[in-house]
């Protein structure tokens, strides 16, 4: 097994790798966010109700669970590069195939298959970034990558509404496939090989033993659960805001798109702040700083909807404050979780990915059930509960990290 030396600075050639990876990630996200303004058109064309709107994202996230258990260890054995390239090509082909769906069930199935691409991003792509660059540089890169990927939910609804004014929703998927093709070329030419151990086992028995060990690891599990639960309010907003704003509050498609801007601009601001702090503060410190806006923002949203269930502007404001906090914590928490175990980074990344995406899917469905049974207030209370649970998990994560570091010093 060859040893790859992480880079401490970026050359132009090295930069193309994370740019190509984030272009692929951008394509996977915008494939959902651009279609959101048109989801009511999709459900109308297939003669089903608005409850199918969130099914698109749920199916997408469930697809992201299916292969992570295999892809992480497989990339530990074969290398990150060939596994990643296969995943990008698969997503491109499923985007093209969506043009021919004839029912809502077929549409949701294609969304599920496209969601499999999330397996490659989390279990393979992010692990490669963490291995290719040193700690402070990888945190900065991950934060900047998050900013670019956040352009999807920021620009996606606006671009989707504009696109639908002159073309149909099916044509969008050709554009998504085209963007993915560009990412595929960039990764093929510039992605380095950071892993690969032909002696690593991918037998069912070996994988089960490895994942069972990770499942018992308090730090890996508390970090993974915290990443997932802390992101639920954002994903629930992405999934249900077309119903909340367009269907129930009667706003236009363009106004709906504009109301996404403050939430995701706040997340970008949080990521930029994290990028500036990454080399100046210990990696744990942004987690503590981010807790304040997360809890405050979700509390404001809950109080506002308790006073007036139609106060969607205050709901948006509260989620924007929360978004800033989320931007501050995600990249650092992912890095800490990935390196909290000595197991292969592909396997750890796969476990993190499986746990977080399962949490995402369950969280979205819980938020959906809460909204359709109790309106904006129950939706906001679910979000606040997620914020408080996130806080408890991060405290547990940092406590366990401190305990292990003390044991290491003693030894």
From TrEMBL:
Identification of the protein by name: Multidrug transporter MdfA
Species for this entry: Rouxiella sp. WC2420
Major facilitator superfamily (MFS) profile domain location: 13-403
Primary location: membrane
GO CC annotation: plasma membrane
PROSITE patterns assigned: MFS, SUGAR_TRANSPORT_1
Subunit and interaction comment: Monomer.
Keywords: Antibiotic resistance, Cell inner membrane, Cell membrane, Membrane, Transmembrane, Transmembrane helix, Transport
Family per record: Belongs to the major facilitator superfamily. MdfA family.
Membrane topology: Multi-pass membrane protein
Transmembrane region(s): 15-32, 52-71, 83-102, 108-129, 141-166, 172-191, 225-245, 257-277, 289-307, 313-334, 346-364, 376-398
PANTHER family (alphabetical): MAJOR FACILITATOR SUPERFAMILY, MULTIDRUG TRANSPORTER MDFA
GO biological process per UniProt: response to antibiotic; xenobiotic detoxification by transmembrane export across the plasma membrane
